[in-house]
Amino acid sequence: MAVRESLEHGETLDYGFLLLAHIICADQQIHSHELKALRDLAREAHISDLTLREVKKVLEKYDTHISLGESVQKVPFDQRSKVLRQILAIAYIDGYFSPLEREVVNQIAQTWGFSEHEIEQMLEYAQGSGRWRIGEHAVDDKSRLSVGAQLLKGYDEAIQRCAQVAGEDFKYANQALNVTLSSLQDLGNSIQQTIHTIKQKTVGQGKHQKGKDVARQLEQTQQSLSSEILHNLEFLHEALRAKQRSLSYFSIAFMGRTKAGKSTLHAVITGEGWDSIGVGKQRTTRYNRVYEWKNIRIIDTPGIGAPGGKTDEEIARSVIEEADVICYVVTNDSIQESEFAFLKVLKDKTKPLIILLNIQYNLRDSRRLEYFLKDPERWFAKEGQSGIAGHLNRIKRYAQQHYASDYLTIIPVMLLAAQLAQEPEFEKHSKQLFKASRIQDFLDSIQASIIDYGAIRRSQTLLGSTVGSINTPYQWITQQATAYDTLAAQLREHCQNLNHRLEKAEEALQEELRQKIKEVFKSASDEVNPFAEEFWEKSEYQMKNGWKEILKELKFEDRLKAAIKSAAQHFQHEVQEAIEEIGNEVKIINQLSSSKFQFSEQDSSFSDFDRDSVRMIGTAILAVGAILAFFVPPGLASIAGSVIISFAAELFKSRDQKRHEAVKNISNSLKRQLEEYQKEILQRYKKNFEDDCQSIASAVDDYFEGLIQGTEAIANQLKLHKGKLADAANYLNRAYAKRIVDWATEQPEPLTDITISKKIRKVNRDFGLTFQIETTTALPLTKSQDEICIILQEKVSIQPTKHCRLSQL
């Protein structure tokens, strides 16, 4: 709405110039060279106030800023070539064309329809132009330097040493990171090939769908691992780009919570950015702001831990890899443990840390200023009512908890006093304010970081902390390898337990079914004598129909079928319940171990296996049901015939005698046949049930074996590449150890594989905590153990090999 209203008053919005602001922010860093070029261009091109206001919204990341896409669409066609050249010139002016900037340039060029050839021509021109502009800005013009920056003198020789060290160290960092990248890519391919082989093997078996179930489960595993591998690859690529971008610079990053005073500190040191310091504003810095003086880079970052500031924190994190020293700013009015939690991130990168305690007191009030200037030292006294001892103790306690180190430098300053020293209205108190601010203590610390420790700081950034970039995927691979080993063992144990459970279930159900079958046959046997009494003188036809009716009334066949069906269903339920328990337990195991090997509820292979088991149980039911045709004994005709023959032969016996003998013969014959058929049914049932249970057990074994083989194969691949990453980390640790030894003995020499082998025998590093260096010979250290640990902020020990120590004795 504001844009539309302004346009109505005659102002015009230059969307091409607005795109220059977008390209400046593309890499999440606003460089002082870029801002100066933007200001110069705005002045030369007479850019309207409306456009400059919109540019400010982009640079300060207002929610209402005009988007990149909208600006691209609204640049007039005849201006696009010129604007694209300006965009490339701005992108190259800080000496590094980042992948993020390249992505934005490609997006713009594709939208405007520029060919790849045209883009490459523009890129070549921009590279040359960018180098010239950098040289122009690097002129040593002390009239343009702030008071603080002018105090950073005598560092030229140190910077040259830093540059030489950085050039050698980067080769090792680049080599180790590329090995790690290659190993992760190989890991992804190896897992894919391994799973493909397992899939072919299991699907080839093809029994009861289990091969496809295993294949699908392993595919899900592959997808999860591939996603994590890609994430780690992206992380490593960014780490490598950050180190490459900062190669020619010594970089100092200011970090801390919102409104702690980072931007004020940045302005005091650099003399720039006063207009961006907020009075009562929130999160004034929304991108990393980079000031460059010769080969020193000072980076102001967005606030840590602000409400809704997650993106700000991610932007701040992006400079950690390239920073040689981190200055963490806290205030005396709000020292809370939560703001120190971020120190763990810095410790994970083994970043040297200076904590700046910004003592806040409103000096803009004339009476307070007068009171302050009478005795400024009282504000820095450790004891007394307003002493800072309590603040220092809390800082040490929280830092120790999250940074896990006692090797910390805490510098109390009053940044507002240093700021007022730069403002015209306080000119008469300028020197007194600057001295009282104690900003000089901080500048001395920075000077020492560059002049005395610059070379070893650069090695820390390029060698020491790069191990952290390898350590991140290494730890992930280690966790995954352990999780998959555990999972394979658990699956094997579960398979054994399941088979044991099914064996017990089979035995129990067989016994239960045996008793039920006997009960059914006993009910039939109990009817034999009454049947014989009633039908002893009936015809064969009547006898057969009569027996059928009795069996029908007893529901003989239905009860047998129900008994067999019930046993089959109970066994089926037992199988399903056991497998579901295993599935749930495996899910819990995976959650506890952070494994990506999970069984989804909707696509569970176990669920498919359960349905497979149901189909197999159904086969058992049909097989046993086929026996029921024998339940109406076919021998009744011969029984009846023998009764009639006996009756003709013994014509002269009494009726009672005849009845008694006939009933006895019929009863004995039927009971004998019932016993034979009962025995036959039990035998047939037992064989069929055992066969089908064995089929289920085999299916369980095959299914689990497929999963176990796939899981173990993945674990082996993970362990193989874990070893490769460990080798890459050791490669860097040895190079870093060589730099530490050179610095501690004040005997620097070029970094090569040969010079490393001559001095370093073995290293053992618990990253960020301890670093044990074993040298090939005893070396004369010129620095104490405490000094080494304080500067490197890591517990470092340097000892000659045991053989050398014994020979000295």
- Overall pLDDT confidence: 78
Instruction: Detail the poorly predicted runs.
Output: 1-8, 130-149, 206-211, 276-283, 588-649
| Biggest pleated-sheet summary | 7 strands, mixed
Quaternary state of this entry equals single chain
Strand content: 5-15%
Q: Give the N-terminus to C-terminus distance in angstroms.
A: 85 Å
Strand order of the largest sheet: 1-3-4-2-5-6-7
The helix/strand class is: alpha/beta
* 3D shape: elongated
The number of helical elements comes to 30
Structure summarized in a few sentences:
The protein has 809 residues and is an alpha/beta fold. It has 30 helices and ten strands.
Could you characterize what this model shows?
- With 809 residues, this protein is an alpha/beta fold.
- It has 4 domains: 2-138, TerB-like, CATH 1.10.3680; 249-464, P-loop containing nucleotide triphosphate hydrolases (Rossmann fold); 478-719, no CATH class; 746-808, no CATH class.
- 67% of the residues lie in helices and 7% in strands.
- It contains 30 helices and 10 strands.
- Strands 1-3-4-2-5-6-7 form a 7-stranded mixed β-sheet.
- The longest helix is centred in the last third of the chain and has 91 residues, at 655-745.
- The radius of gyration is 43 Å and the shape is elongated.
- The model is unreliable at 1-8, 130-149, 206-211, 276-283 and 588-649 (pLDDT under 50).
Notable characteristics:
alpha/beta, 4 domains, 67% helix, Rossmann fold, 809 residues, three-stranded mixed sheet, TerB-like, disordered N terminus, seven-stranded mixed sheet
